[in-house]
């Protein structure tokens, strides 16, 4: 065989082999080639097209909250009102979280995908260097509120000390998030008249306690009948040593809310 003919034969064989590899190789999922981040963009509800509420352990989507009231409670004059329950006929409850010790990154995804209106009452000494996590929560719709600088029991502290705790955290949160919180929760849910005076002087519109709180065994109630009612403020309790992560505890509570014929409203719309 002449050299030109041999070269032509080699080229033909190479082309045939290339065509066979392209045609015969097992197909690769394009999502697998793109990677996980791209897969999330292609399948915003998960690779199976699963809706977000199922992804987060709910059997049905959360009902949308009604239009918020035109005249929130905090428009009243005088010392800030102390509330654990908002008087409303709307079938909503309000989810609140304290301190800022838990920084479950998947909870950010849960809040975003469920469009879940939650209120985070933050303590500076507890959050520590983790403010970035709460900035991400704020960016997907969570509200950031005041829970003092150092989490002291407020009753009995002098006015100057209480004012420093409340106003100091107001300034911290303003510098971190660009807003001055309107709501304040005293540590341990305890306060005195001095607390209310200091809160008013720091620009607080309402002092928020809770009527119901989650526990490892379910829900406890501070007052009234032992069931969820429209307007209840709920405290999602802190992490237990061996308890499930925040997102799972929230999903368990949401199922209870739905079973009661309720949905979740934005507390800041009502106060």
From TrEMBL:
> What's the EC number here?
3.-.-.-
The molecular function GO annotations come to:
hydrolase activity
In the UniProt record, the signal sequence range is 1-23
Q: Per the UniProt entry, what species is this protein from, by scientific name? A: Streptomyces sp. 900105755
Q: Give a yes or no for keyword Signal in this entry.
A: yes
* UniProt key word Hydrolase: yes
Q: Report keywords, A-Z.
A: Hydrolase, Signal
Q: Where is this region: Disordered?
A: 39-61
User: Any idea where the NodB homology domain is?
Assistant: 91-271
Q: Return the Pfam families for the record.
A: Polysacc_deac_1
**Which named protein is this?**
Polysaccharide deacetylase family protein
């Amino acid at each position: 065989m002449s050299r030109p003919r041999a070269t032509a034969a080699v080229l033909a064989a190479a082309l045939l082999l290339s065509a066979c590899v392209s045609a015969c190789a097992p197909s690769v999922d394009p999502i697998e080639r793109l990677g996980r981040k791209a897969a999330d963009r292609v399948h915003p509800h998960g690779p199976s097209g699963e809706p977000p509420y199922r992804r987060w352990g709910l059997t049905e989507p959360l009902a949308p909250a009604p239009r918020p009231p035109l005249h929130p409670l905090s428009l009243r004059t005088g010392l800030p009102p102390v509330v654990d329950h908002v008087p409303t006929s709307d079938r909503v409850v309000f989810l609140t979280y304290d301190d800022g010790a838990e920084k479950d990154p998947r909870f950010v995804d849960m809040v975003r995908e469920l469009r879940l209106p939650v209120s985070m009452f933050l303590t500076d000494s507890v959050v520590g260097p983790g403010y970035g996590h709460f900035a991400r929560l704020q960016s997907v719709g969570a509200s950031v509120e005041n829970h003092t600088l150092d989490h002291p029991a407020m009753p009995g502290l002098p006015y100057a000390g209480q004012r420093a705790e409340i106003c100091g955290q107001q300034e911290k949160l303003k510098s971190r998030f660009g807003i001055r919180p309107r709501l304040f929760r005293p540590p341990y849910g305890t306060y005195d008249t001095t607390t209310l005076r200091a809160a008013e002087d720091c620009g607080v519109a309402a002092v928020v306690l809770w009527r119901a709180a989650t526990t490892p065994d379910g829900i406890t109630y501070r007052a009234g009948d032992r069931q969820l009612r429209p307007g209840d403020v709920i405290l999602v309790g802190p992490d237990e040593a061996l308890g499930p992560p925040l997102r799972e505890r929230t999903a368990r509570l949401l199922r209870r809310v739905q079973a009661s014929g309720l949905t979740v409203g934005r507390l800041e719309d009502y106060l």
